[in-house]
Known about the structure:
By secondary structure, the chain is α/β, with parallel strands linked by helices. The chain contains 17 helices and 15 strands.
Amino acid sequence: MSTTLSAIEERFEELSAKGLAVAVSRAVRDGALPPGAKLPPIRVLATQLGLSPTTVSAGWALLARSGAIHTDGRRGTTVADLRDPAPGRYRRALERQLDFALDLSTGIPDPALLPNLGPALSELTTAGLPGSYLDDPVLPGLLDVLKAQWPYPAEELMVVDGAMDALDLVSRSMLRFGDRVVVEHPCFPPLLDLLESIGVEVLGVPVDDTGLRPEPLTTALGGLGSHISAVFLQPRAQNPTGASMTGQRAQDLAPILAQAGMPVVEDDSAGAVAATPPISLGEWIPDQVIHIRSFSKSHGPDLRLAAMGGPSNLLREIIHRRELGQGWSSRVLQRVLLSLLTDPDAVADVDRARDEYTRRRVALVSALTSRGVEVASGDGLNLWVPVHDESAAIVRLASQGVGVTPGTPFEVLPGGGGHVRVTVGLVADGYEELAQTLATAANTSPWGLRAR
Length: 452
Ligand SMILES: Cc1ncc(COP(=O)(O)O)c(C=O)c1O
């Protein structure tokens, strides 16, 4: 450690977070800090360089954002190997052949089940469109509809460019390098990548059929010295497992979260195509909850809109910060969304889509169950299918023209490798044949790719 410290100290010229980031970058470039080298703890470095721990932490954040260092609770903070960048989980999850006859790896909604945009677009005229930078960031009519549909009375509501934008805004506003957060296990890979890019350490808490499990959550929040800055969860149609939080589970979790007191970020990504009704811990702990609802699955990913509600003290900071950048989400698109949420035909289209996704899920789950593959029916567009060996299953399916997503990038806790995610929402028919193909792949062993 002392050579690491002196390598940084020798190159340290400016008493600031940036000065520290520059010194570490130079040491890496010069080869004085090789890939994998463990960096000193924040307090040690702060004392040695005469900086405050906050400044060191800000310097680490700059380096993490540029991908130069990684943080991992057990191993500490280490120099990244830039010659061989480990692909992010998201990219890994999406790394796939592009020519599958049946690509069920995408997690996207079926374009045939999206509402018809025609009437909403033909209604669009320039008249009545706010033209000023100072107009309300959310169309007043849309705000009323969102308030009426929100699962609890949120103090503040904003419209953003999709749930990922919401998660990005929230994380960058609330979290700092070295913070620890609780996420679900398994978890949506882009969230893990996002948190990693900020230098945030994640603690996985397993989900069961009805959401985050209370006992491991209590342990994660109450563990020795475990100061948790936020909890991220998906309240329904969890991607990848399909789990939805029940009212009973919300009631069990609320006092645990209330006692710990940190913000809880809920990502309702399936939104209106989820078969389970909207639910939010905001009903119990409104002061702590930021609830996000995406319209991508229900109204189209390219509409690029989501709504985010929460207490003013948490959201105002984000709204003000956003004023210095994008400012607001296109009100033209907000007008389209408002139309789609209020036009009876468009509402009926989304209702039909929800029922059709349920039919598809139930059909494939029952065909799999009758072949001995136990899959939770859950909710949403995906099934989390247990397999004997992830790689063997994926290779076997690919050889038959079927693309699925590997489970490992979703895993937060060790011991994975036993699932693939299948976007059943894209399967309109042929359930028996697909179930047979999946069941054979699920039972394929790595040795010679022979089915067991
Ligand atoms: C859990 C989860 N969060 C966020 C997103 C991204 O949503 P959006 O398109 O609104 O950014 C997805 C998309 O699949 C998702 O599954």
